[in-house]
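input
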Amino acid sequence: MTKKRRVILVTDGDEYAARTIQYVAANIGGRAISQSQGNPTTLTGSQIVQLILKAKNDPVFVMFDDCGLLGEGAGEIALKYVAEHAEIEVLGIIAVASKTHQTEWAKVDVSIDRFGELTEYGVDKSGLKDLELGRISGDTVYCLDQLDVPIIVGIGDIGKMARKDSVKNGCPITLKAVELILERSGYHDNQK
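output
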């Protein structure tokens, strides 16, 4: 039996997200699939899986984006395919908030606001605590409730949030979300 590739899924794929994810992946010794960047996602789930399987080390970060399309768009179709693939183990999902309020939302286990504080509430695009308990509004989150993953972490617009998550500042919000996913999924236990 081949060892499953351990993956973190990110529901954003714009250039800010790509720079942030590449920075964080390098910081923790993982790999980012830069070809998964796109707004919207242009690769199929099958193409993304092939890239994951070729990545040099885990965890592998993959970005998905629906570009605001309501319902199940290309990003979500690809995300579901990857998440359910037999050779992939999803460690967790970073669910990124967007402005599509009251249209698409997903349950999150925890959110991190733009000040780096954990909250049981969702957060908005700016990374500010929202009114909803345990849920986040976004444009590539429609299918997340259908997936069986260890943890879903909600954050504001990745790489932005009033520059508090910029690469120049070390992407502290995204990095904290990744560290939480690695801790909760037992990733470090499996490394020993």
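quick obs: The two ends are 20 Å apart (CA to CA).
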